[in-house]
Amino acid sequence: MKLFHNYSLKQLNTFQIESIASYFVEIKSMDELLELMREEVFKNNRILILGGGSNILFTKNFDGLVIHPTIRGIEIINEDSTWVYLKIGAGEIWEKLVEYAVKYNWGGIENLAYIPGRVGAAPIQNIGAYGVEIKSVLQSLTAVNLKSGKQKVFTKDECGFGYRTSIFKTRFRDDYFITDITLKLERTPTLKLGYVALDDYLKANNILKPKIKDIFDAVVNIRKTKLPDPEKVGNAGSFFKNPLISKDEFVHLKKKFPQIRSYPQNDGSFKLAAAWLIESCGWKGKRQDDVGVHHTQSLVLVNHGEASGTQLLSLANNIQNTVKEKFGVLLEKEVNII
After folding, report:
1. Which residue of the set 54, 238, 298, 308 is catalytic?
2. CA 147 distance to own-chain centroid
């Protein structure tokens, strides 16, 4: 374990924003974490756990200690004729984990292909795509309390999952360091279809009886056509959540804007397509200096070169204001602002 001073985080966030951390350390094991927690640099500084940096926007330097988890390992801890239980280190790359599961025909996360980031961050955000969220396959996770040093196993129900959130993003924000997660995957995959873009892709490619690899390939190809590669254009994927509104609010908006895109929810509420709201306000493809809105997906804000975090945040705030003025709906940021 090596401690660095005044460490650049530009290569550790997908927006490619320059930010300097006062202190930086990479943690490869539980023992290293516990050793670090005994050090003065840990006790006397603000802590930020930074994995792949795919859901964060730095607007300033970080005056504190950045901990970068790289705990690896994928292990079958239990299995039967129906299920495979995988224990995965928090430092594993999420995309690689999905590829691994598809290789062995273990179903449940193929719809979550091509999502950047590390495994440990996935439950914090309750990542989701194409009709699937990680909460549907997560069995449990192990985390260390950063105040007491005690290890705790959280069941799925204890994680308090919601739409792109969990207790690790709200009630226990910055309190726990996730070391590993356990997923429950199907030996005979039940494919999650019914998402329009996914169905359209399968039909267009004449895939009438898709297998798990077909779903994986479809999701990867769809995401590649819709989303910019963060290695080429700085971005953090969807910047805003799709807003949820009541039925009465939806009826009112539908009368005023008949073309509004929405998705009815089981509880009677409606989820609005944030991308449609943003595009309807004229933001799609707009550029202001080195910041802008992507030309094919208006949920994605991009760094065209040497943008600052404050410039990107200003753009996001302007988008929120115009959507609020036109539709009376407040877009909630999905990206964490530092």
Report:
1. 238
2. 26
- What does the DSSP 8-state code read for residue 45? S
Contact (CB, 8 A) for 218 and 201: yes
Query: Is 332 considered catalytic here?
Result: no
Same-domain pairing of 81 and 182? yes
Is 298 part of the annotated catalytic residue set? Answer: no
112-135 pLDDT per residue, tens: 999 988 999 999 999 998 889 999
Residues 237-260: tens digit of each pLDDT: 899 999 999 999 999 999 999 999
Judge whether residue 278 has pLDDT over 90. Answer: yes
CA–CA distance, 234 with 290 (Å, rounded to integer): 10
Domain carrying residue 317: 234-337
Catalytic residue among 92, 110, 133, 334: 334
Task: Give the count of domains, the chain.
Answer: 3
Q: Is the domain of 65 the same as that of 111?
A: no
Domain shared by 247 and 278, yes or no: yes
Catalytic pick from 54, 118, 133, 164?
164
Separation between Cα atoms, residue 196 and residue 190, nearest integer Å: 18
**How many CB atoms within 10 Å of residue 289?**
12
Does 213 map to a domain? Answer: no
